[in-house]
Each structure stands twice: as structure tokens, then as C-alpha cells.
Write a structure and sequence with these properties.
The chain is mostly helical. It has two domains: 42-92, Arc Repressor Mutant, subunit A, CATH 1.10.10; 95-246, Tetracycline Repressor, domain 2, CATH 1.10.357. It is 64% helix and 0% strand. The chain has ten helices and no strands. The chain has helices spanning 21-30, 52-66, 74-81, 95-119, 125-142, 144-150, 160-181, 187-209, 214-217, 222-246. It starts with 20 loop residues before the first helix and ends with a helix.
Length: 247
């Protein structure tokens, strides 16, 4: 389941004013002396957020939703939020670091959703596994921008925090799968089934988000689609478990 090294740019105006009172008066009229500094990233007084970092994250998600991950740049983000082009670099060294943060946030939310759905199915391994599938699908559709970023980072190993939280989600799925097939099965067999389950729900979510399933299925009802998908999951898991028991 994901380069930074551009030093943040900071542009400051430094005015060296002598003791000539006429010069001081001139600079006061220009607003360069005796004025309080603008807030971080302020551009013409348009920026009034209390948390620039969060505003940048929200703006990035909007840009991705309006276009795609490729449409996101720190310059475009600065325009979106209404700050100077230098402002985003106070918080993110480059686009890759911003995307990594979005991915981390996405995986953390996904894990929380899996946990929430499964807590309603305690002590029933099969139901917990299907609940994880439902959580995945509903999260992907409800958070399409996060979802795109989470699986668009080509070099996950360059972002250890992304890899770490992604592994937490998959490890939870692996644990649920092992509870269904039983501890007697090999780790390899369990991992194969977990990957098949992930591929199924991931593909289903991607097809829905891309608008390719509504016309084929003749429905725009997400609940129906989720139940259809989890039904296929149930059949997949049952068939695979029977195959394992027969060998």
C-alpha cells in the first residue's frame, strides 16, 4: 500500500533607514515602517485562516477532487488558498511531502472506519471480515481525494510513515482473514486470500468512483453496490476456505 529536499523559501523585506527624519516619514507613508508583520503566508490581506497548514491540506484535497493528483502543485495550491507562492513551503518542502501527509491522514481514517464497522460485529470472524470490506468501500467513495493519493504514491518505501500506517490497515485485514480460515492454515495461504479480498474491494471502489459501474448495474444506490460486493466477498472467502480444507 507509497522527494523532498527543497528548502523552504522565505522572502522578507528589510529596510535600512538612516536617522534622517524625512526618510523615516517617507517610509512610514509607504507602510514599510511602524507596520506589524502580516501573518504567515498573507497575500494582500486575503488570508485569514487560523491554521495555514490545515487550509493547505483542505485546498489540496479540493484540487485533487476537481482534477486529479497530477493537477496538484504547490503554486496552484497557493492560488487556491489565497496565499503567496512561498507560503506552502513553510509547511511542506515539496509536493511529495504534501501527498505523503494526505496519504497518512487517509490511512488513519480508513483504519478508524474499519475498526468502527467491525466493533458492531464482535466475536463473529466472518462478519468482521465483511465489515472491513464495507468500511473500505464506504471510505473510498466518501473520501475520493484521499483514496486517490493513498494509492498514487509510486515509491512507498521513500515515505516510511506512509508505509507504516498502510501496513496497519493491511495487517488488520490479514488478522481478520486468519480468524476466518483458521490458525492451521499457512501464513502464505492466508496472505493470498487477504490480497484477493483487498483486490476485490479496491477494484470495486475504483470502478464506482470512476463512474463505470452505475451504467453497467443500472443503479446509483451505493448501499446496493456495497452489498453486492460484500456478497461476492463472502462467496470468495467460502470457496477459498473450502479449497484449503480439502488440501
Amino acid at each position: 500500500m507509497v522527494s523532498r529536499y527543497l528548502m523552504p523559501l522565505r522572502f522578507e523585506m528589510i529596510s535600512l533607514v538612516g536617522r534622517n527624519p524625512k526618510k523615516v516619514g517617507k517610509y512610514k507613508e509607504m507602510g514599510n515602517v511602524g507596520q506589524s508583520k502580516k501573518k504567515d503566508g498573507d497575500k494582500g490581506g486575503r488570508y485569514h485562516h487560523g491554521d495555514l497548514r490545515q487550509a493547505l491540506v483542505d485546498g489540496a484535497l479540493e484540487l485533487i477532487r476537481e482534477g486529479d493528483v497530477g493537477a496538484l502543485s504547490l503554486r496552484a495550491l497557493a492560488r487556491k488558498v489565497g496565499v503567496s507562492y512561498a507560503a506552502p513551503y513553510h509547511h511542506f518542502s515539496d509536493k511529495a511531502e504534501l501527498l505523503a501527509e494526505l496519504a497518512i491522514d487517509g490511512y488513519q481514517q480508513l483504519y478508524a472506519e474499519m475498526e468502527r464497522y467491525q466493533n458492531e460485529q464482535k466475536n463473529d470472524p466472518s462478519s468482521e471480515l465483511l465489515a472491513a470490506g464495507r468500511a473500505y468501500l464506504f471510505f473510498a467513495v466518501s473520501h475520493p481525494s484521499h483514496y486517490r493519493v493513498m494509492f498514487s504514491l509510486a515509491h512507498a518505501d521513500e515515505h516510511p510513515k506512509v508505509r507504516s500506517v498502510a501496513d496497519l490497515c493491511f495487517d488488520r485485514l490479514l488478522e481478520n482473514t486468519r480468524a476466518v480460515v483458521g490458525p492451521a492454515q499457512s501464513d502464505e495461504a492466508t496472505a493470498k486470500l487477504a490480497n484477493m479480498i483487498w483486490a476485490t474491494v479496491h477494484g470495486a471502489a475504483t470502478l464506482w468512483n470512476d463512474g463505470l459501474m452505475c451504467s453497467h448495474l443500472g443503479t446509483t444506490d451505493l448501499d446496493i453496490y456495497v452489498e453486492m460486493t460484500t456478497g461476492q466477498l463472502c462467496d470468495l472467502v467460502s470457496a477459498y476456505a473450502e479449497k484449503l480444507q480439502a488440501t
